[in-house]
Amino acid sequence: MTANLLDFDLEGLAAFCERLGEKRFRATQLFRWIHQRGARDFDQMSDLAKSLREKLKTSARVEGLQVISRQESADGTIKWLFDVGNGDAVEAVFIPEDDRGTLCVSSQAGCAVGCRFCSTGHQGFSRNLTTGEIVAQLWFAEHFLRQHLKTTERVISNVVMMGMGEPLQNYTALVPALRVMLDDHAYGLSRRRVTVSTSGMVRMIDRLAHDCPVALAVSLHAPNDELRDNLVPLNKKHDLAELLDACNRYLAFAPRDFITFEYCMLDGVNDQPEHARQLVDLLRHHGGHGVSCKINLIPFNPFPQSGLTRSPHKQVLAFAKILSDAGIVTTVRKTRGDDIDAACGQLAGDVKDRTRVEQRIVRQRTVMLKQVPATATGAKET
Ligand code: SAH
Ligand code: SF4
Known about the structure:
Layout: E1 3-4, H1 10-19, H2 26-36, H3 50-59, E2 60-61, E3 66-72, E4 78-85, E5 88-97, E6 100-104, E7 108-110, H4 119-123, E8 125-128, H5 131-149, E9 158-161, H6 171-182, E10 194-198, H7 202-211, E11 215-219, H8 225-231, H9 240-251, E12 259-265, H10 273-285, E13 293-299, H11 313-325, E14 329-332, H12 354-366
Parallel strand pairs: 1-2, 6-9, 9-10, 10-11, 11-12, 12-13, 13-14
Antiparallel strand pairs: 3-4, 4-5, 5-6, 7-8
Helix pairs in contact: 1-2, 5-6, 7-9, 10-11
């Protein structure tokens, strides 16, 4: 079996080159061809010696993921469904905004955490993605978009590990993938523009701080343990106090001086003024000095089996006001791509449900991809 070069960060690729009897610096050239130029054919890599190209042809490959479907929302959001074999599929979502282009990437087929409000969680866990499968989502989307927009400039400026799966439950595959995203010879994204979102894997948060401190988002969803135990089962293992301690430790290494807390607004469950006041108290006083943070309120995106409903907009605004008045920077996330089930928590990627997939494929054939706003390119640092 040949090696898939998408599985390697630069260090791994250099070691691979050495095993082929080549100098380590060849890896940099190879890395650039693959990630910066989107090449997969070794014959295209004209500045590599012919002898190396021949060796690569017999020992390596650049293998992306099979695209099952591509859908585009009226708001420009694009969702791809990728086949990862054995009836599993994962999704990646591109969200163009005025000053940036964000790709939401999956880390697992399914998820074992089983949060009540999450469609991926309801689907159960199938398997971890490999580094190559995580990287392939970015590799494919970036080069697809460049070709589509007829640009040689970078289109994706931000990556959020907020697709399917709990990234910190797939730590060994995740870290090399993050390194590829950050590497100047590949995508060159700044640490501030790569975000890992976790439901609260405390020990792994500490490891990430040392191995690859990118921006951190923590899915909180509740201001007390009783409620959080019910919504995010992982809380029974690592309670809020433990989780917030880990956040404070992370801040010493983080590229930003705050943690983003995500809070999914569920009607009548966690959206009352009393919950907002508890949240203020928790985040202002935990451990004596509180946690430096921003809060992102996410309107719940419903799916049939959840038995939950979205908080009314008025309720979300009232909740946000209590937090803002207490001096906590709070934003309400705009829902993007919900007409194509691409919004947060709607990613199920279930190819076992063939009818749905076939409908999607038909839709994809009939819908021509519209122009992504040009403002999504050439994003500025924020
Ligand atoms: N497993 C990680 C990352 C993937 S989920 C995590 O839980 O953080 C990405 C974000 O979407 C999380 O904040 C998650 O809580 C939120 N989310 C999940 N289901 C949702 C839904 N149905 N509506 C809105 N947000 C949801
Ligand atoms: Fe898994 Fe995150 Fe969904 Fe929870 S919200 S089930 S951790 S993907």
